[in-house]
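Posting this for the archive.
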Amino acid sequence: MTPADLAQYLLFLALTLALAVPAGHYLARVFTGGPLLLERVLGPLERALYRLMGVDPEADMDGREQAWAFTLTGLAGSAGLFGLLMLQRFLPGPPGPGHLSTPMTWDLALNTAVSFATGTTWQAYAGETTLRHAAQMAGLATQGFLAGGTGLALGMAFIRAFAREGTPGLGNFWADFIRSVLYVLLPLSLLLGLVLVGQGAVMTFRDHLAIPTARGWTQVLALGPAAALEAIKNLGTNGGGFFNANGAHPFANPTPLTNFLGMLAITVLPAGLTVTFGRLTGRPGAGWMLCLVMTLLFGLGLAGLHLAEAAPSPMPAGVVQGPGLEGKEVRFGLAQTVLAGVATSNGACGSSAAQNDSFRPLGVAVLLFDMLLGEVAYGGLGTGLAGLLMAAVVAVFLAGLMIGRSPEYMGKGIGAREVRLAILYALVMPCAVLLLSALALSTQAGRAGLGSNPPMRRFTEAVFAYASCCANNGQTLGGLSANTPFWNLTTALAMLLGRFATGILVLALAGTLATQRRRASGPGSLPAGSPVFGCILFGTVLLLTGLSFLPVMALGPAAEHFALSGRGP
């Protein structure tokens, strides 16, 4: 690792932690009704939306009501977007029919609708050859705001579960949702979108542009309002690209600065939520310990992916040697490609800036393992903090077993019900990923989409796809042809489980914890801000992931690495 590469990684982590402080304080004001300058402009709109929806923003909702609202919002968004996509041929504006080569079948429309409504933005199509600009903006970009808002509302409900005591109320989901969109995502997206346009990102409603070349032939360039979608896809940790090349397309992500800012947009708000957690619970040290664990996990991914891609090729000498740059953008180089890979795979935001299929087997293993962690290294907007807090419940339970005391976290007792909910949460991803991967690999319909790559890579492609969908991430390996009824329907199922099964369990646990009275700390308590707790939580996250997925990691990326180096079958 060169000093310049290391400096980029350290600068990114330092900026993430530094910006987390003002971001966390701002989020606390947004969700506690603190004074906001934007209320002068957006306050009337906020109150109008409450009246339109028939919502009393002061009415508390318990865990069951929160779970119903969270699920209803996602399913309604899926249904609305499905209808829009099926009718997109009637929408006005470009691109013309001659540029739309991929038919919008019902299964592709369903997959896309579920994908964007759950914040996954898994794309089994190329945007510039499938969707009209109006569908991209009215459908996909809108869902980016809505999915991000529901994620933030879920995260805030879980924070209140630890901040409150003796009450079933977790706040008002609809108020949190509306305030998330109006006061967080909308202004930040506008600001980031202007920066992207200033750096050269495309923002136009023109059709494709034909340019004559020096050799006398014509090159046709796809255009569109890409900058608007790029901003919310990162801030909302959604990840869907306007173009098929996603963050590697120069019209969407034109410079190293836009790439760096885009990755910061993914990490700062989730990191800031840990500061919000500490502030609202009155224990800032506990929030910073969560942020430190996130940062260590993120740094582990940076080190692993950089070493995998900077090392000489695993193939025998004389075949291919040197750092792996194939499939990576020259304008970003190795360091920023690694940074983008780790930020997007950890952050539930599959805004890939390189071709994932071109990463070396151990590099693919890092991306896959990051997704399998379950959005805990900064992670998704709201869902990342919730995932780490669920892991914290398991961690204190294990610690309590070791010292023979009743486990508690943040003064809340962790009993049989709490542990069952946390374990069920931890089992959602292994069950979804492993069972659906087995189905794909054992059926002709599943294997038909895996192409002609070597068997170990095809195995990895299947696991990677379902891990990406269940983690609500959206990345894929290029060898998978996902636009078939089998893959469209099974990946949609993985997305639904990864979003709603986990979200319902989070809110069920939040409702249970909120009703408890906070216990006084005793000599056997494990302080939530202590280094010991941080080490136990860090180990628990790795242990839960390793126990579930190390066999598939060995059969896929690890086996491929050894096969390429001549040390395997």
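The two ends are 31 Å apart (CA to CA). The mean pLDDT is 87.
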